[in-house]
Design goal:
By secondary structure, the protein is mainly beta. It has one domain (40-260). It contains three helices and 14 strands. Strands 1, 2, 3, 4, 5, 6, 7, 8, 9, 10, 11, 12, 13 and 14 form a 14-stranded antiparallel β-sheet that branches. Strand 4 (87-96) and strand 5 form a beta hairpin. 16% of the residues are buried. Residues 1-24 and 27-38 have low confidence and may be disordered.
């Protein structure tokens, strides 16, 4: 079964491009002997994504419009040139073990970190009564990524979900959001490691819960934060267009914490 799953991933990647098959060449027996029984599949990635809208609906709704995700175009001087470039120099490894656990690892290809960029036109919240509240406008962020490890766990023996676990080392070098009379404004926001030139760490699991597991009598989801460690701050926070000044939170640590959506 493991070999079939790996083959399925490889087949999907190969057939996604019409020109790939023309470049395939037979592998000699002596060459093939060097790859038999090796685990995993590694691919190099470069690309960006745009979405007109992301919306999560439940009792109310969380909506993000005008999304661009990719690289940040960081110069040698360490500044971001923009958010319309590729997220590149990325090496992605897929591996499925004998228990059916899928591990996906994102790491730099040849450098020691990857620059990333994100922008969104608007972020809004909508209540169950269809009342909308603007949260952010012209939201932009960029930073560096050292690695992301994502583990998709198979169901437990009783059939319940064990969720998706994610470990990441990253920074947010600059986070901004436009200040207006109806939104939260941010200038010079950052999330960084506690050590100089270090990376923030987030180790978490996102897991759906059945009505029997949730304790609230209905299906829901939970975010389990196993470990979060970072320095967080911004040069100015504004609410409703009124500046409140700088915010600094040093040595922030969160461990063994579960956040459950209660709707």
């Amino acid at each position: 079964m493991v070999s079939l799953l790996r083959f399925g991933i490889l087949a999907t990647l190969v057939t996604s491009s019409g020109g790939v098959l023309a470049d395939l060449k037979p592998v000699a027996d002596d060459e093939l002997s060097g790859v038999v029984a090796q685990a995993g599949l590694t691919v190099d990635y470069s690309g960006q994504t745009t979405l007109s809208q992301f919306k999560f609906e439940n009792a109310g709704a969380y909506q993000v419009d005008g999304i661009t995700m990719g690289g940040a175009g960081v110069t040698q001087a360490g500044f971001s040139e923009g958010y319309g470039v590729n997220f590149d120099d990325v090496r992605v490894t897929f591996d499925i073990d004998s228990d059916g656990v899928l591990d996906v690892v994102w790491q730099p290809g040849i450098s020691d970190k990857i620059d990333w960029g994100f922008r969104a036109d608007d972020v809004t919240l909508e209540s169950s009564g269809a009342k909308k509240t603007a949260l952010f406008t012209n939201l932009e962020a960029w930073g560096f990524l050292k690695e992301i490890r994502r583990r998709v766990n198979p169901p437990a023996a009783d059939g319940s979900s064990q969720g998706v676990s994610t470990y990441s080392e990253f920074t947010i070098e600059n986070l901004t959001a436009g200040a207006s009379a109806n939104t939260v404004g941010i200038e010079g926001g950052y999330v960084k490691g506690m050590e100089p030139a270090g990376f923030a760490v987030l180790d978490s699991t996102f897991r759906p819960l059945s009505a029997a597991q949730s304790g609230i009598g209905r299906d829901t989801v939970t975010l389990e934060v196993h470990n979060f460690a970072a320095d967080i701050g911004m040069s100015n926070l504004s609410i409703g267009g009124v500046g409140l000044g700088a915010v600094t939170l040093d040595n922030v640590r969160v461990t063994d914490t579960a956040i459950t959506l209660n709707h």
